[in-house]
Amino acid sequence: MAPSSYQSPSQGDKSEKTYSQTSQSNLASSTTTISKLLDEKGNDVITVRPNDTISTVVTILRDKGIGAVVVTDQNRAVLGILSERDIVRRMADTPGQTLPQAVEDLMTKDVLTCAPADSMIDVLKRMTEGKFRHMPVMDGTSLVGMITVGDVVNFRLTELEYEALKMKQMIVG
User: Which residue range or ranges hold the CBS domain (predicted)?
Assistant: First the structure.
């Protein structure tokens, strides 16, 4: 039953154009790509070599304020990834002996990567399911960036704030 204040349109009433959500507007965030995120974040990737020491990596992580580094060879081919979490686990296993160890002994060798054209939502799901926070971005065989769960969340929050502002402007006029 319609509310008592509702009156159905009558012949001769002027129709007002209304705005509604569309499948395109509702799916916009799910089609946002990693490339768009990298356009805003930048493509800087801190890399180390497999024979570098954990001590060197710890200093880099501290100085750069990052949580992981990509391990590459001299041609920048990705060999692995090393995160703070990897280092902390090794420190628990080898107290007082971790810092002189080589990166190749701690790094994760089976690195999951994403591509610039990948959907941000799909990548976030993969990161959540795999329980890791850092993912190198590869364009073919070239390392073109690094994203984190935090990057994706911050990007999406900014999108939501913008969408809310647009809706408010539409409502207010």
Answer: 38-98, 107-163
Confirm if 51 and 103 have CB atoms less than 8 A apart: yes
- 127 versus 1: which is more confidently predicted? 127
Going by pLDDT thresholds of 50, 70 and 90, the confidence category of residue 81 is: very high
Instruction: Output the six-digit token pair for 164.
Output: 């809310």
Helix (H), strand (E) at residue 144: strand 142-148
pTM of the model: 0.75
Question: Can you give the residue range of the structural domain that contains 149?
Answer: 29-172
Q: What angle do CA 69, 107, 86 make, to 5 degrees?
A: 80
Q: Which of 34, 32, 36, 14 is nearest to 24 (CA)?
A: 32
Which run of H or of E encompasses 157?
helix 149-172
We report the CATH number of the domain holding residue 94 as: 3.10.580.10
In this structure, are residues 148 and 136 in contact, taking their beta carbons and an 8 Å threshold? no
Q: Is the pLDDT of residue 83 over 90?
A: yes
**Please, is 155 exposed, middle or buried when counting C-beta atoms within 10 Å of its C-beta (0-12, 13-18, 19+)?**
buried
